[in-house]
Specification:
Elements (H helix, E strand, L loop, with lengths): L2 H6 L24 H6 L11 E3 L4 H6 L1 H11 L3 E6 L14 H10 L3 E7 L13 H13 L3 E4 L12 H19 L4 E5 L14 H8 L5 E6 H6 L4 H7 L6 E4 L1 E2 L17 H5 L4 E2 L8 H4 L3 H4 L3 E4 L8 H15 L3
Amino acid sequence: MVWNTIFENMDNRRSFLLKAGLLSGAAMTAGSQLGSAMELFLPKGVSTIGLQLYTLRDALTKDVRSTIGKVAGIGYNHVETFYGYQAGKPVQFWGMTVKELKALLAENKLKTHSGHYQLNDFLTRGNGDDTALKNQIEIAAELGQQYLIVPIPPFNIWDKMTAPDFEYMASQLNKAGELCAKSNLKVGYHNHFWEFRTLANGQRGYDILLKGTDPKLVTFEMDLFWIAKSGVDPVKYFNEYPGRFSMWHVKDMDKANTANITGPGLDSKPSMEVLKGISYAEVGTGNIGYKEIFKHQAASGLKYIFVEQDVIKIDPFVSITESYSYIKRNLLK
């Protein structure tokens, strides 16, 4: 979600952040009372659509009130915030205090279940400073959110991440989960492509994070674009780690740019070289098979979905309307 912000702030990176097992239909007839009763217990899937506000970062900076109003007018039910912690700086979202943002969302009948927060220091080996974590827990709690999401690995290790780095991150996420629980929050981790590079020991960072974190304390927000762009099947992870993925980022892949970005000969490429070659599409117009992926909500443990598009080539409000409309017509039950 963060590439434009990263490019704009490379000289000052620290300023960034900015069940299977469903009942078989053959076991009961269409008119069976038992069948009708059991349907009440089957997973229904998500029924509302959220938006990661990073998608509209430029519009929010220009006019936050109008932008939030338009998001609600399109039909979005909830939004995911993003916040770039800076020590000593007042907490503001596009010039608004936390209280003012909460009121604006309520005014537009928008909920916020989740937010992206910066934990660069906390997740870096040899540092582990929890100041930003504690401050941002307060922000998420005041907004009434359920999830505090880590959107990206520490900047300083992007191109040199090792198994011990991921093991440390997993340990720190567990600690963050314990602190978050005291404020009725759960910590989560959002993937990009680094997590799917093959490490020196043959493992993937994503597996290290999943195996090393306590499901009671840590959830995962799967970015379906980045996992698909990494050449990895998301359903494989849903089946291998059922119930761990309570949120999805839903965005599509440019049909003219579908080459994988992880694998042999690719995993050593500099991050900025990889990121500059990425392009996106509105949901339903790209290369990702969302109709099949959405069949696996139960195995995922899915609770919320968020439209997100890092770079938009058309009017951003037209873009998020197209994505919303496709999901509502074709993917929701």
